[in-house]
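We close this part of the discussion by returning to an individual protein. The amino acid sequence and the backbone structure tokens for this protein are reproduced below:
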Amino acid sequence: MHGTPPAATGAAAADRHVAVEYSGHDEWAEHLVAFVRAGFDRGEQVRYFADVTDPGLVARTLADHGLDAEDAGRRGQLVVATADETYLAGARFDPDAMTGLWQEAVDTAAAQGFRGLRAIGEMSWGARDIPGAERLLEYELRIHHEVFARLPLTAWCFYDRRLLPRDDLRVLAGAHLSRSGTAAYDGTPGLTVTPLKDCPGFRVTGSAGYESRRVAASAADALAASPAGSVTLDLSVLDHLGIAALAGIAAASRRRPPASPVRLQGAPPALHRMLELFPELGEGLEVAGR
């Protein structure tokens, strides 16, 4: 037995859910080996969820870099599966189901005597026509507080730049508080949503207009689904909030349980004017300074 898993904390969660971008085998291997070596050294179970990568290549690459993947596999410390067996095991991708699976995986690792769980998931399936793939951003936004703030879990989300559109990659990487290998996206218009580090909620950056309607819809879905008693939406660095995006936020607040408000911080003057014109949109919202 390796001892008791360390307690998870909300602050530490920012360092344990990481977006990793890469463009070729060498970059992929560098991130893989560093991640797995750290897990082995700490007595954690390591799981790899492959999408486009041949599962056998994972073990071969680790062995080429001096890690005994074969022995770790026999002992259950290394588990290599596929996205079809994990993220996509149901009829469609379901963020709620995946949240439950993470709890089960952490419990299993602890029962087997490991000090925690770390996992790599290849997320390239999000660019394909897979039922539920449109909920990937909602999932990435929710799991900071719903999973990593509660569980002794470290996970790196592997994003292959060659397989995802640039704008999608920018948005998905932006849903993580920690990133590695991310490209510069300066000057790229659009909307980015990031979990707040210390309390349930999200920070919205950029322009929430027609072109970013899918991102805004995913953020609204994440707001509605959060199990927290209240959720904060930080608008202090938002450039533009369209009426459709505000209506989506209002609808999300109405989908939440009673007495579980959405709190808007840093709301721009334009939002206050919209709420004066359309007061029905303010139901279920708590707007600071209003």
Notes: The first strand starts at residue 17 and ends at 22. The mean pLDDT is 91. The two ends are 55 Å apart (CA to CA).
